[in-house]
TrEMBL record:
Protein name: Rhamnulokinase family protein
InterPro entries: ATPase_NBD, FGGY_C, FGGY_N, Rhamnulokinase
Pfam family, one: FGGY_N
Gene3D superfamilies linked to this entry: 3.30.420.40
EC number: 2.7.1.-
UniProt similarity note: Belongs to the FGGY kinase family.
Superkingdom assignment: Bacteria
Gene Ontology MF terms in the entry: transferase activity
PANTHER family the record matches: L-RHAMNULOKINASE, SUGAR KINASE
CDD domains: ASKHA_NBD_FGGY_RhaB-like
Top class in the EC scheme: transferase
The species this protein was found in: Arthrobacter sedimenti
Source species taxonomy: Bacteria, Bacillati, Actinomycetota, Actinomycetes, Micrococcales
Length: 498
């Protein structure tokens, strides 16, 4: 079956029109953007029409997202998308939204957001872990949800809430979709990150809601990638300059689900690393791995597009480096990233390492100091040279990737032939080469915009502009992406090209 289809669609005047272009709202923990995606036999062309910052703020006693500002930026991005499409004589066929996972907003019966959502980087949920585990045995939790233990998972956040009577929880992408359409739904890939989702049944684990004193209808019903939330509300459509019949389509709304959908893999057995603020490292499986060994290794089983299982672990990510850069900038040191990585690559390969996914690195501020302290606790010395700290981060991430992939192969009984790195980290030649060295496997880097590509392709398939399953969608990605291959080397210096 061809991966492309452009079925004619009848316009209002009885003519024929193509499915149009697709607007992808793609928001990460530190920035967001709205992009237009055009699907053809040459791949997907992405055009960024609006970029904006994102981040946590101290407000009302905790670290929260400035959601009102975030939503205003989404509207501004959709206005820009409408303008660009109109100038080029195009029609926006639909809108898809992906963001980070686990966080939620609470709305009342009238649909009003009652407070700015807490960020997973806030420490409040740590205090709820003992209560949840005293009510629900961790082994039972894992046997049902298959979810990696992270102290900020939604289940622990909800356990800190004092009074949820009359309130409803919407995960961040679902909250944006609700404000755009007035329709409440919970997209399944994101629902699977909550700790309240049955990994086998693909439904809410309602017995956990009951055990924790949560209403079974706290979250809206589940919807799947490719299904529609609904059309834009008339006032929203008017505000952004789009037709009221413009549909908001559920995509892999957990950004990693969209990114994995766009991994340009062929028939080889592959591991993936979605490398950005966090690194999500794992395999794509047909069935969850719910063994005690998997729980002890702290692997997660999250839903992917088309009912796949993203069997992975969260590993520390480039947040470590970006926070270091922010700290150094405050001290007046602002080198180009390329120069910093080149200086790091020139250092010996046997330097000190840290546990990059230690919870002690979750919060912001003074990251260089915390990394140096972690190295001292391990009995080594790092110093304060930014190049040495950068090399420590890169070595530590690559080593963490290698350990995670090796463990995933063993636990899932599935050998890996090649590692695909997508996202911002795919541009980091030093990290990609170190990953190939550490895993002993070829690394294929790209695309950078995997999340937006996965978002657009799920929309395109829903509109009939693409057909087939994930292999077909991945063919489209591969057709339009320049990929870079890194072979394992004895030393990072051998053949290294920054």
């Amino acid at each position: 079956m061809s991966a492309f289809a452009s079925p004619p669609q009848r316009g209002a005047g009885g003519g024929v029109r193509t499915p149009g272009v697709f607007a992808a709202v793609d928001i990460g923990a530190s920035s967001g953007r709205v992009m237009l995606g055009r699907v053809s036999g040459e791949g997907v062309e992405l055009e960024t029409v609006h970029r904006f910052p994102n981040g946590v703020v101290e407000r009302d006693g905790g670290l929260r997202w400035d959601f009102d500002a975030l939503y205003a930026e989404v509207l501004e991005g959709l206005r820009a998308a409408a303008t660009v499409a109109a100038v080029q004589g195009e029609r926006i066929a639909s809108i898809g939204i992906d963001t980070w996972a686990v966080d939620y907003g609470l709305v009342d019966d009238a649909g009003k957001l009652v407070a700015q959502p807490f960020s997973y980087r806030d420490d409040r949920s740590r205090t709820a872990v003992a209560h949840v585990h005293g009510t629900l045995d961790p082994a039972r939790l894992y046997q049902t949800t298959g979810l990696q233990f992270l102290q900020f998972n939604t289940i622990y956040q909800l356990a800190t809430e004092q009074d949820l009577d009359g309130l409803h929880a919407l995960l961040i992408p679902d909250l944006i979709a609700f404000l755009l359409t007035g329709v409440r739904g919970t997209e399944a890939t994101n629902a699977s990150t909550t700790g309240l989702f049955d990994a086998v049944a693909g439904e809410w684990a309602t017995e956990f809601f009951t055990a924790l004193g949560l209403r079974k209808d706290l979250f809206p019903p589940l919807i799947q990638p490719g299904e529609a939330y609904g059309d834009l509300l008339p006032d929203v459509a008017a505000a952004v300059g789009l037709p009221a019949e413009t549909t908001v389509v559920a995509v892999g709304s957990h950004d990693t689900a969209s990114a994995v959908a766009a991994v340009p893999a062929g028939n080889e057995a592959f591991a993936y690393i979605s490398s950005g603020t966090w690194s999500l490292v794992g395999l794509e499986l047909k069935h969850p791995v719910l063994t005690e060994a998997s729980r002890e290794a702290n692997f997660t089983n999250e839903r992917g597009v088309d009912g796949t299982i993203r069997y992975l672990r969260n590993v520390g990510g480039l947040w470590l480096l970006s926070e270091c850069q922010r700290a150094w900038a405050g001290e007046g040191f602002q080198p180009e990233l390329s120069a910093l990585l080149a200086a790091a690559a020139a250092l010996p390969a046997d330097g000190p390492q840290i546990n990059a996914d230690d919870p002690g690195f979750i919060a912001p501020d003074n990251m260089p100091g915390r990394i140096r302290a972690a190295v001292r606790r391990a009995g080594a010395d790092l110093g304060d040279d930014p190049a040495a700290i950068t090399r420590c981060i890169m070595d530590s991430l690559a080593a963490g990737y290698a350990r995670t992939i090796t463990a995933a192969e063993r636990l899932a009984d599935r050998p890996v032939e090649v590692v695909h790195v997508v996202g911002g980290g795919s541009q980091n030649a030093l990290l990609c080469q170190l990953t190939a060295n550490a895993t002993g496997k070829p690394v294929i880097a790209g695309p950078v915009e995997a999340t937006a590509l996965g978002n657009v392709l799920v929309q395109a398939r829903a509109a009939g502009a693409a057909t087939g399953g994930l292999p077909h969608l991945r063919e489209i990605v591969a057709a339009g992406t320049t990929l870079r291959r890194y072979e394992p080397l004895v030393s990072v210096h051998e053949g290294y090209v920054p």
